[in-house]
């Protein structure tokens, strides 16, 4: 596991919104669902679209890929519908002193 990296202030991502951040060479999407924060790889596992540009479903805690409509559970990264079949990586997120920190998960083998 890597260390927690400060990515932004909590206020930078209002409820119902997402932001794309770069941690080293890794694009990460950070989502705010009613004050709960989630972090995923920002790239859809199906067609390389940016998930942070997708439509956030607050009720389902999911993000819809803007390119082909695949949805991913923000808690697990598991695709909820086709065409995506592979999950996206999730990352640990920490809220401390009004800032968001992300810890990248290990690369899949």
Strand ordering within the main sheet: 1-9-8-4-3-2
Radius of gyration: 13 Å
How many DSSP helices? 0
CATH topology: Rieske Iron-sulfur Protein
Following the backbone from N to C, one meets helices and strands in this order, namely EEEEEEEEE
The major beta sheet can be summarized as: 6 strands, antiparallel
Percent in strands = 35-45%
Write up what this structure looks like.
This protein has 109 residues and is mainly β. The protein has a single domain, classed as Rieske Iron-sulfur Protein, CATH 2.102.10.10. It is 0% helix and 42% strand. It is built from no helices and nine strands. It has strands spanning 5-9, 18-23, 26-33, 36-41, 55-57, 62-64, 71-73, 90-96, 99-103. The strands form two sheets. It has a six-stranded antiparallel sheet, with no helix packed on it. A hairpin with a 2-residue loop joins strand 8 and strand 9. The chain is globular and about 40 Å long. The protein starts with a strand and ends in a 6-residue tail after the last strand.
Keywords, please?
mainly beta; 109 residues
Topology diagram in text:
Blueprint: E1 5-9, E2 18-23, E3 26-33, E4 36-41, E5 55-57, E6 62-64, E7 71-73, E8 90-96, E9 99-103
Antiparallel strand pairs: 1-9, 2-3, 3-4, 4-8, 5-6, 6-7, 8-9
Short description:
By secondary structure, the chain is mainly beta. It has no helices and nine strands. The protein is globular and about 40 Å long.
